[in-house]
């Protein structure tokens, strides 16, 4: 059965709208529950629709685009503190830990950046 048949049109619109917010704001948009209320769908339905349409959970997607954005910022010459701050991590260490879990190594090992 096609994805469009599994979810109603307004659910698909909510999922697409949420993904666009995430893409525009590098995963720092409104939480899923706020958007789901605005769009008239439950948070669980929004999350299920997101996984069906894009093949990963909202959390996985947000983490992936944040890490990809981090790599881009390092490539542009930004330092570790600036990258962590721009990606809305409260502590540099939290960003380093997330980066290591995602890529298997710390950003300092690959980019030789200072913290």
From TrEMBL:
PANTHER family hit by this protein: HTH-TYPE DNA-BINDING TRANSCRIPTIONAL ACTIVATOR EUTR, HTH-TYPE TRANSCRIPTIONAL ACTIVATOR RHAS-RELATED
Protein name: HTH araC/xylS-type domain-containing protein
Entry-linked Pfam families: HTH_18
Classification of source organism: Bacteria, Pseudomonadati, Bacteroidota, Chitinophagia, Chitinophagales
Keyword Transmembrane: no
Provenance organism: Niastella yeongjuensis
Record key words, sorted: DNA-binding, Transcription, Transcription regulation
Top-level division of the source organism's lineage: Bacteria
Domain HTH araC/xylS-type: 16-113
One MF term in the entry's GO annotations: DNA-binding transcription factor activity
């Amino acid at each position: 059965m096609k994805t469009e048949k599994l979810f109603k049109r307004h659910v698909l619109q909510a999922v697409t709208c949420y993904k666009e917010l995430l893409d525009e704001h590098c995963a720092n948009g409104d939480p899923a529950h706020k958007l789901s209320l605005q769009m008239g769908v439950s948070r669980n339905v929004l999350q299920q629709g997101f996984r069906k349409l894009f093949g990963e959970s909202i959390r996985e997607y947000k983490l992936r685009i944040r890490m990809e954005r981090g790599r881009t910022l390092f490539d542009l010459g930004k330092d570790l503190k600036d990258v962590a701050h721009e990606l809305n991590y409260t502590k540099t260490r939290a960003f380093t830990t997330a980066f290591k879990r995602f890529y298997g190594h710390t950003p300092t090992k690959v980019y030789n950046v200072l913290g």
